[in-house]
Amino acid sequence: MKEKVLEELKKVFYPGKTHSVVQEGIIDDVVIEGSKVIVKIKTKEKNQAVIDMLKRSIPLTLKKLDGVEDVELQIEKIVDEQEKKVADIKYVIATTSGKGGVGKSTVSVNVALALAKFGYKVGLLDADIYGPNIPTMMGIEGVPVTLDPNNKDKILPIVKYGIKVLSIGNLVPKDAAIIWRGPLVSQAVDQFLKDVSWGQLDFLVVDLPPGTGDAQLTLAQKTKVSGGIIVITPQNVAMSDAMKAHDFFKRLNIPVLGVIENMSYFICPNCGARTDIFDHGGARRFADEYGLTFLGEIPIDVEVRVGGDRGKPIVVSNPTSPVAQAFEDVARNIIEKVKASK
Ligand SMILES: Nc1ncnc2c1ncn2[C@@H]1O[C@H](COP(=O)(O)OP(=O)(O)OP(=O)(O)O)[C@@H](O)[C@H]1O
Ligand SMILES: [Mg+2]
């Protein structure tokens, strides 16, 4: 009878796959108790919809066998590698902004480097699948990823300036015109987390794609973000984008660590006079209004842009400059906020 049941199980497709539940390797054992069949399943499947489908399809098929009256499924869920890996990362921070071009990647890079400077183990994940620019900013463009010698199924992040970095830009050819759709996005991110040997990290900084749509939601969910950072520019019009970013984290139940105002003001390199090019202080007003922490303001400085273009971020290239100091202040405020929230 057991053989018959196993034969029959080979006809049950694994939901979403082209092979059977037997080939999927989830059938641990089959026990026959009179007219009752007990199917023991061990699975890493996290998608409840798939489990529900199995609960329907397996009994339906087996009950067609002569002598089978009752089918019981005993499902044991195995905690998979991915969760253990993510558990090795103490704090996942995601940066977002309602719209593009506000300096989200610049902030991600420099804050990650500042955190590392304070002695933390830091990873930087460029999850901006639409326009990965972290490789350029970190000077790792075209650097191929290598396999982990201790685990050939995993890839090693690239180590640069003392932090571990990985970008979709290092996995696909530059300028590959890929139109990423929801399921692809979520697969790519799954892979980032499962198949990358991040090792132990205190912080993983995730640079999300601009915007607050479905792809961004999926990404933030998948990466199990523990705290979010909103980057905004000081113009009044930027406030509606900040609100979108705020709602985005709220929808996902991700606590907002705080707000950063980028390109906050300009200090003339010749005379030292300060100009508030885009107005100033909007982020602080926004933070106050929504009861959020104001994490700091970063001046606009040509050295920041040049550092980004040349692959040597300002926190590394000119650590004593006021802008680098501003990034360090932001990093300090983040650490304080994280410690207070634990
Ligand atoms: N504080 C700053 N001072 C001067 N230039 C800056 C500053 N912050 C960012 N930039 C420059 O502005 C441009 C946009 O910044 P960045 O790429 O970080 O923005 P983003 O929000 O990540 O954009 P995208 O939406 O394209 O991902 C870059 O050229 C960057 O070097
Ligand atoms: Mg960016």
The CATH class name of the largest domain reads Alpha Beta
Strand content: 25-35%
CATH architecture of the largest domain: 3-Layer(aba) Sandwich
- Could you say which overall geometry the principal axes of the C-alpha atoms support? elongated
Estimate the helix proportion, in percent.
25-40%
Alpha-carbon distance between the two ends? 55 Å
Major sheet: 9 strands, mixed
Cα-atom radius of gyration? 25 Å
Could you tell me the number of beta strands?
14
Mean pLDDT: 88
Our count of domains comes out at 2
What is the count of helical runs?
Answer: 12
Described by its quaternary structure, the protein is single chain
- Are any ligands bound, and if so which? adenosine-5'-triphosphate, magnesium ion
CATH topology of the largest domain: Rossmann fold
Structural class: alpha/beta
Low-confidence stretches: none
Supply the CATH superfamily name of the largest domain.
P-loop containing nucleotide triphosphate hydrolases
